[in-house]
Specification:
single chain; 45% helix; 4-stranded mixed beta sheet; alpha+beta; 4 strands
Amino acid sequence: MGHRNSFDQHVLVYDGDCAFCTLWVNRLKRWLPVFPKIQTSQTLALEDYALSQDDVEKYAWYITPTHQYAGHLAASALLRSQSRFGLRFLGHLIALAPVSWVAAGIYAFTARFRHKLPGGTPTCDPATNIH
């Protein structure tokens, strides 16, 4: 029960305008046994978390009362907060070199090209996306 109470103060911050991001946050929420409060960067008072607009445009954030994790380390922290050993182990693995180097590269690539990845909504369809 103590784990649950402390976990209530954890927040996952992501780009709510990104359909790809929203799709994966919703999938993870269904798949993981416990999930933190979800906050989109567009509705967050950034100064409350000492984040800048640049911070939230580049990374998803996992925020606890004592730490802020960005990008692949946010995914690692989310997994490390789970009750299942296998998920916690995977979270620790993502944070350790050399796996962390690969995870950082995959995160950077995905973040850079997320607008070209399937997002699960009609607005992600390149045929209907008008720029």
